[in-house]
Design brief:
The complex is a heterodimer.
Chain A lengths: L2 H15 L1 H4 L11 H23 L11
Helix pairs in contact in A: 1-3
Chain B lengths: L2 H19 L8 H6 L6 H12 L2 H13 L6 H26 L5 H9 L2 H33 L6 H19 L1 H31 L2 H11 L13 H16 L2 H8 L4 H31 L11 H9 L2 H38 L5 H25 L2 H15 L2 H6 L9 H20 L4 H4 L5 H4 L4 H30 L1
The chains are: A mainly alpha, B mainly alpha.
Chain lengths: 67, 489
């Protein structure tokens, strides 16, 4: 398994796997209860991680039109 | 007539005009009509995927969940974001295969991979029976939104008819191009109106986001976290994962991805989709604000919460804008679903029984099936009693049953046979129906299991049975084929 595949698991671990530790109200961050902030943070991180994967993914580097 | 009504109609008209205009300069054969001639770039793809995420169901449902259930509502943004990770990997592969084999529908994919047009019929039927309740749900939502936002001047039934006629018209004329172009105004409205009300309402009533949540926390202990049992953490995780598998195999998601002009456009789209789910956050905020402002809505009444609070807060012209947004969130996915269902029936059912039908005939049939499916959906929307409620509950779990055969088809040496795939799907669908009719849950079926297991989403049982049957039947039929070929040698 390559690095880009391993990276794909991180959003699942963050958003779902660590949920038991994030299931609380305090502290409030950006006006949101902690659990909501946690999920929102991982939504944003998911996009960031996907962008990194896109950069690393060799299939995006090929010049041909259909790839 | 009031201001709200004028605004809603103005947007409806705009949607129809844009939808029809989308056809311009295109020769509408089936490939152009259903999958946009495979020429869509990242922007149009994004509009199509965003259309599926932000449906009427999310518009009304997300606010209703936040209002009625609290923190469990967050599962919606979690599943949509994680879904795009899976889609990033799966859809470029599917797209490439579809392009090489000139596939139009999702069912085509199974026909081509398993070399069985009859499996295609089964897949098409499962697709259509899952899509119809999905459209009905959009129409029900549309009725509620328009009748409330027009302050009751238009009845819900009239609104359903008007909406259906509009959507049927531009789908028949422009197909997927119509969906993409109406999605443009839909998303402009979401980015402006929804974001505005999501921020304005908490500040207006509570003086900010944090004071609002603190207020709720003080009056409703435990509302802002996942409970210990029921809609607990294990419910959350299993539901997110199961819904993710389900959303990938929706037939219209396949067609949206077929429309891409290259695989890069698909990957770029799924980088952006998680960020788009943050738009749902603002709907949650409105739902939470309503906990104190519109108390005591029970059951299906809580679906009205966003509109009730909007009417209480804003002038009619602004309620009209919210109503128009709601209307668009029904039209966009509704149009895509209608087109998908009619393509499935024309290409994967009719064409199998009439093999010498010409391309043009199939393409025309697909277009003429649109009003037929529309009428069926209107019938269920206006007359559906208990039956349609059960169908609604089942649609999502039905479609998930296509998942095992789909994943196995990616393997280099796929051991799953067409008989195995079909038997697995049928077993899964029957299990879903049985569980829904008996209102079963894992807790009721296995009362002695620990709480963590009991709260698992009940759809898992159907999926496991499906996999077992798929594997068993595949192994048996594969052996028979081998014996048969040995004898013949």
């Amino acid at each position: 398994m390559k690095l880009i595949h391993v990276l794909s698991f991180i959003p699942f671990i963050g958003m779902l796997g660590m949920l038991p530790f994030a299931n609380k109200v305090n502290p409030y961050i950006l006006g949101m209860p902690f659990i909501l902030f946690w999920i929102v943070m991982w939504v944003i991180l998911t996009s960031v991680i996907m962008a990194i994967i896109y950069r690393l993914d060799p299939s995006n580097k090929e010049k041909t039109d259909i790839k | 007539m009031n201001a709200a009504l004028y605004i809603i109609f103005a947007f409806l008209l705009l949607a129809i005009l844009l939808g029809i205009r989308a056809r311009k300069g295109k020769n509408m054969d089936l490939e152009q009509w259903s999958v946009g001639g495979r020429g869509f770039g990242t922007v149009l793809l994004f509009l199509l995927s965003a259309g599926e995420i932000y449906t009427t169901f999310t518009f009304l449902g997300a606010s209703s969940w936040a209002y009625g259930k609290g923190a469990p509502a967050f599962y919606i943004i979690a599943y949509v974001s994680l879904q795009s990770v899976l889609c990033y990997w799966i859809f470029p592969v599917i797209w490439k295969y579809a392009k090489e084999h000139h596939l139009i529908s999702q069912s085509d994919f199974f026909v081509s991979k398993y070399k069985s047009p009859y499996l295609g019929i089964l897949v098409a039927f499962i697709g259509v029976i899952s899509i119809i309740p999905y459209i009905v749900l959009q129409l029900k939502g549309l009725g509620i939104i328009v009748s409330m936002a027009s302050y009751g001047l238009i009845s819900s039934n009239t609104a359903v008819w008007i909406g259906v006629i509009a959507v049927t018209l531009y789908v028949m004329i422009s197909g997927i191009h119509g969906t993409a172009w109406t999605a443009v105004i839909k998303d402009i409205m979401i980015f402006s109106i929804v974001v505005f009300i999501g921020i304005y309402i908490p500040f207006h009533y509570y003086g900010g986001m944090e004071p609002m949540f603190k207020h709720i926390q003080a009056t409703k202990q435990g509302f802002l976290t996942l409970p210990g049992s029921g809609l607990s953490i294990s419910w959350f995780i299993s539901t997110v994962l199961l819904t993710d598998l389900g959303t990938i195999v929706w037939p219209h998601t396949f067609m949206a991805n077929y429309s891409a002009k290259n695989a890069k456009a698909i990957r770029k789209n799924y980088i952006m989709i998680p960020l788009y789910t943050l738009m749902l956050l603002f709907i949650f905020f409105v739902g939470f604000a309503a906990v104190e402002q519109i108390p005591n809505l029970k059951g299906s009444e809580s679906d009205l919460v966003l509109l009730k609070l909007s009417i209480k807060t804003f002038n009619p012209w602004f309620v009209g804008l919210i109503g128009a947004t709601g209307l668009l969130t029904a039209l966009v996915p509704g149009s895509m679903l209608l087109m998908t269902a009619s393509t499935l029936l024309a290409k994967n059912v009719y064409k199998v029984f009439v093999p010498n039908a010409r391309e043009k005939q199939v393409s025309n049939l697909a277009k003429y099936l649109v009003p037929v499916i529309s009428l069926v959906c209107v019938f269920f929307t206006l007359n559906g009693g208990k039956g349609i409620v059960l169908l609604l509950l089942m649609g999502y779990s039905f479609i998930t049953q296509l998942f095992p055969a789909l994943v196995c088809s990616f393997m280099k040496n796929n051991f799953v046979t067409k008989q195995g795939a079909a038997a697995g799907m049928i077993a899964g669908v029957i299990t879903v129906a049985y569980i829904t009719f008996t209102n079963g849950s894992i807790a009721s079926m296995f009362p002695s299991w620990p709480q963590v297991m009991k709260d698992l989403n009940v759809g898992i049982i159907a999926l496991i049975l499906n996999i077992i049957v798929t594997v068993t039947v595949s192994l048996i039929t594969e052996r028979n084929i081998k014996v048969f070929t040995l004898k013949n040698q």
